[in-house]
Inverse folding.
């Protein structure tokens, strides 16, 4: 086998999460009362557009979570395979050679020359000071540099391709959906065009088209240029910001995944049993929530750092070290944030405990744990779900701040926080280097806005208090 | 009410002890004082004597939980856990790992933190309430819709971008205010104005949206209907009835954070070079000075608990129906 899969801890948890979401989907599909609120979500126009964008980010993140090590070319010994020490992800392979095209230092977006003056060696041996030509960016142009027309034709071609792909996709969708609901093709097209369909298909299709257009153009241009420039060590900023997506998503989702079992278990137990169990659990979460969040995180990360430096044998490669720190950050963020969910769940369970159906279950002799599982948990699911989606964007933003403080992800991990952190010094340069900051801004903003819009739709659909407003 | 407050304050003691044991475990059990000493003295080629000397000069030369060399009660008192905890509880913070007096530093750095945090809180509160009230007045209209969209957009931008953008635009391009720094007395004003504005803008998104929901919830109540049926104009209803009643959840949410204002804002202070407690903490984190971080965790916890007690008191003050038992 020419490749060998590498499973980091966070990868394993990501796939566990995907599996859990799949299981949830199958469960929801079969039960009408669980489907009803999701139907409400599907009606929301902005929410569904945001979901399409979110799914694109998730796709990139998932591709980036499949890690492999390639086999090294080995001629003298055919039986024994040597694997490269470099861990790559599937995303790397797909968008290669984007990550490997390293220039000398800064270059502006779409530039063909370096951003700083350097000594250039001329073919005749003499040396002059000037802006050297980039090794990769715009190298296909040769010496006759006419960038704007090249960029224009390339984007036009890419846009045309995207348009064709989108048209085919839309036609296929219309065809199958019309057949499914047994109405003529034209009628289905009209229903969707006028936005009269139940699910907000028109907005979904438009967003898909827009995403296709942007992705197609940027990938096409990225083959010839550094579309978001290069950073200090000459790495492509577009590549960096793509790789950062995984970090952001992992912080946003794994943190919740880590804290959810504790918050749910403790919250329901405290609310249901009361007495000393309630006192003990309340004590634990009050203690934890009294510590200022950033301080708790930095204290824990500091300790972890000392632990890692003192036990180098446990962390063999850089990837494992960075991955451990990412996971630790998720766990610590989770410890800091489970308390609020725990408190809400406890209150809700306290209310539910007094309901008649619980008394009835008790009278029929149903065990306590079974009551919690069958009667309490389904009734607090909506709170858990709302918390997951609301926390996501907050956590993505928190990552950037923590990385800036120096207690975020490992400095070698690609993350928006690290990009912003280094961009601070770049803004103080003369002339300023603005593109890493812009790249981080665009990526973070798109992800967080769509997460916020989607979570609003989910909250409106699931929160029973908001239901009477409609 | 007095007995209730006393009980609340007594409750704080086990919580503080719990927090202390937790930070103690983080700092001294996962990494022994030897590890910390080695890190401060440099990783490689550190002699055992140097480590011992460092531990002795910083007061880390005791066993963690149990001292075999002592007799009687001193078995437990002559340990790191006991001495470090007791010193915190009597507000004897000792010196940092760099050798500076922590209590003195805190006393000095508290004021710049307050000078930044108090105006940010007050102006932010005023702006958020006014904006939310406007949105509630125009509810369902285009102004409201635009306001919500603005809030979502503002919420989705990281604070770091506000700071970097503000410093670049007002400090570097327009040169209206200094980019960073601090000066005592009235001169502090020109250094503080930009961080305060940025702090307020950064809080508008989440704050106004939350207040708007509170206002709308209040508008849906019966007494508003009564007021409207009496023929009161909408403005009067909003200002005289809705605002006053909605202030209860808003104020109680604010009271919790008032004591923690002393701690300052980590990000703002370090970006703008304001010598407050926030930048103090950040420096300590970056220099891995465990003594300072432990003290700050302790003070932070204490202030948070004070905030909770104050919240209870403020409930009674703003809502006479509530009695603390």
């Amino acid at each position: 086998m020419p490749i060998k899969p590498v499973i980091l801890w966070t990868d394993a948890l990501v796939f566990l999460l995907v599996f859990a979401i799949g299981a949830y989907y199958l469960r929801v599909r079969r039960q009408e009362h669980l489907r009803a609120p999701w139907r409400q979500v599907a009606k929301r126009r902005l929410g569904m557009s945001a979901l399409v964008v979110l799914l694109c980010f998730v796709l990139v993140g998932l591709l980036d979570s499949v890690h492999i090590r390639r086999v090294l070319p080995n001629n003298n010994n055919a039986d024994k395979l040597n694997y490269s020490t470099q861990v790559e992800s599937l995303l790397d392979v797909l968008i290669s050679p984007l990550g490997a095209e390293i220039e000398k230092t800064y270059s502006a977006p779409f530039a063909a020359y370096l951003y700083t003056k350097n000594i250039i060696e001329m073919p005749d041996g003499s040396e002059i000071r000037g802006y050297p030509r980039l090794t990769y960016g715009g190298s296909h142009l040769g010496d006759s540099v006419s960038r704007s027309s090249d960029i224009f034709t390339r984007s036009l071609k890419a846009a045309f391709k995207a348009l064709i792909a989108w048209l085919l996709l839309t036609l296929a969708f219309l065809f199958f959906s019309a057949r499914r609901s047994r109405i003529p093709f034209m009628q289905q097209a009209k229903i969707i065009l006028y936005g009269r369909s139940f699910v907000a298909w028109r907005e979904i299709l438009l967003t898909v088209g827009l995403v296709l257009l942007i992705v197609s153009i940027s990938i096409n241009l990225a083959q010839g240029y550094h579309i978001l420039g290069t950073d200090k060590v000459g790495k492509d900023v577009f590549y960096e910001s793509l790789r950062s997506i995984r970090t952001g998503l992992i912080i946003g989702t794994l943190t919740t995944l880590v804290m959810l079992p504790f918050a749910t278990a403790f919250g329901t137990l405290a609310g249901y049993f009361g007495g000393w169990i309630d006192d003990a659990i309340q004590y634990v979460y009050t203690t934890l929530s009294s510590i200022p969040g950033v301080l708790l995180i930095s204290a824990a990360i500091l300790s972890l750092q000392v632990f890692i430096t003192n036990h180098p044998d446990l962390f063999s490669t850089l990837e494992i070290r960075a991955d451990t720190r990412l996971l630790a950050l998720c766990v610590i963020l989770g410890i800091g944030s489970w308390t609020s969910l725990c408190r809400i769940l406890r209150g809700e369970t306290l209310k539910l405990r007094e309901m008649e159906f619980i008394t009835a279950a008790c009278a029929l002799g149903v065990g306590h744990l079974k009551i919690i599982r069958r009667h309490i948990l389904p009734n607090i699911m909506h709170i858990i779900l709302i918390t997951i989606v609301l926390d996501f964007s907050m956590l993505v933003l928190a990552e950037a701040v923590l990385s800036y403080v120096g207690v975020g992800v490992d400095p070698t991990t690609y993350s928006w926080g690290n990009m912003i952190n280094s961009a601070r010094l770049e803004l103080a340069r003369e002339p300023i280097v603005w593109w890493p900051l812009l790249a981080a801004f665009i990526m973070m903003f798109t992800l967080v806005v769509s997460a916020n819009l989607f979570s609003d739709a989910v909250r409106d659909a699931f929160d029973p208090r908001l239901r009477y407003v409609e | 009410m007095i007995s209730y407050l006393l009980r609340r304050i007594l409750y704080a003691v086990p919580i503080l002890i719990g927090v202390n044991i937790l930070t103690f475990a983080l700092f001294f059990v996962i990494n022994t004082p030897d590890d910390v000493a080695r890190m401060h003295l440099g990783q490689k080629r550190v002699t055992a004597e140097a480590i011992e000397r460092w531990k002795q000069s910083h007061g880390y030369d005791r066993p963690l939980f149990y001292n075999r060399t002592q007799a009687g009660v001193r078995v437990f008192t002559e340990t790191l856990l006991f001495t470090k905890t007791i010193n915190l509880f009597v507000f004897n913070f000792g010196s940092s790992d760099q050798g500076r007096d922590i209590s003195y530093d805190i006393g000095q750095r508290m004021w710049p933190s307050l000078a930044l945090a108090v105006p940010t809180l007050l102006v932010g509160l005023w702006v958020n309430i006014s904006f939310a009230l406007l949105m509630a007045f125009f509810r369902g209209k285009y102004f409201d819709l635009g306001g919500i969209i603005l809030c979502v957009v503002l919420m989705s931008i990281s604070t770091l971008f506000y700071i970097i953008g503000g410093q670049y635009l007002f400090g570097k391009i327009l040169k209206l205010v200094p980019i960073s720094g601090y000066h005592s007395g009235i001169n502090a004003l020109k250094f503080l104005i930009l961080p305060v504005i940025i702090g307020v803008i950064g809080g508008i998104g989440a704050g106004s949206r939350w207040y708007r929901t509170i206002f709308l919830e209040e508008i849906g109540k019966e007494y508003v209907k009564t007021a409207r049926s009496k023929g009161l104009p909408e403005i009067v209803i909003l200002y005289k009835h809705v605002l006053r009643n909605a202030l209860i959840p808003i104020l109680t949410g604010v009271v919790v954070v008032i004591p923690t204002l002393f701690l300052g804002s980590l990000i703002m202070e370090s970006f703008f070079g304001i010598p407050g407690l926030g930048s103090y903490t950040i420096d300590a984190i970056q220099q891995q000075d465990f003594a300072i971080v432990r003290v700050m965790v302790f003070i932070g916890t204490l202030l948070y608990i004070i905030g909770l007690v104050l919240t209870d008191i403020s409930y009674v003050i703003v809502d006479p129906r509530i009695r603390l038992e």
